[in-house]
């Protein structure tokens, strides 16, 4: 077994409790009442502004950080709101407002999209993340650090808090 890391650095699995608020103080997301979040540091499992703020921190530290859109979910791009032909989707596709789907582009890249509205002929979609343009106010408590397994480093994500979640992909 590897030694327990002292500080957050690349290839460390970090377990955190977090609350995310918008600029108005409204809670957008929180691990409160749920499992804490485990992520692999250095692999963009979390937004860049939060990841860089956590680098070098220790177990027990509390980090409060405001992350600008550029370092969060991006700036809203009006050109990323599009109308697609309804016929471009399978007839049985679940196309309700708020539904997220992933489109495969011609070059094989995967692009997440969110449905804004649907009418008889068109599906109005937004390729902006729903939190694009928001300044993200995080409050994070660092619960646990451990060294990632070689398998986790290869996958670029943790296999659960203790590293024992098995999956295939
Ligand atoms: Zn994996």
Description:
The chain has 2 domains: 12-73 and 132-162, Chitinase A, domain 3 (Roll), CATH 3.10.50.40; 78-126, Thrombin, subunit H (Beta Barrel). 8% of the residues lie in helices and 36% in strands. The chain has 2 helices and 9 strands. The strands form 2 sheets. Strands 1, 2, 3, 4 and 9 form a 5-stranded antiparallel beta sheet that branches. The chain has a 4-stranded antiparallel beta sheet with strand order 5-8-7-6, with no helix packed on it. The longest helix is centred in the N-terminal third of the chain and has 7 residues, at 48-54. The protein binds zinc ion. Residues 155, 157, 159, 167 line the site of zinc ion.
Protein topology:
Blueprint: E1 12-21, E2 27-30, E3 37-40, H1 48-54, E4 62-67, E5 81-85, E6 100-104, E7 110-118, E8 122-126, E9 136-147, H2 150-155
Antiparallel strand pairs: 1-2, 1-3, 1-9, 4-9, 5-8, 6-7, 7-8
| Ligand types | zinc ion
- Overall CATH architecture of the largest domain: Roll
How many angstroms does the end-to-end distance come to? 25 Å
What value does the Rg take, in angstroms? 19 Å
Structural class of the helices, strands and pairings?
Answer: mainly beta
The overall number of domains is 2
The number of helices is 2
Strands, count: 9
Shape from CA axes? Answer: globular
- CATH structural class of the largest domain: Alpha Beta
Strand percentage lies at 35-45%
Order of helices and strands: EEEHEEEEEEH
The third-level CATH topology of the largest domain is: Chitinase A, domain 3
Mean pLDDT: 93
Low-pLDDT stretches are: none
The biggest beta sheet reads:
5 strands, antiparallel
Q: What fraction, in percent, of the residue positions are helical? A: under 10%
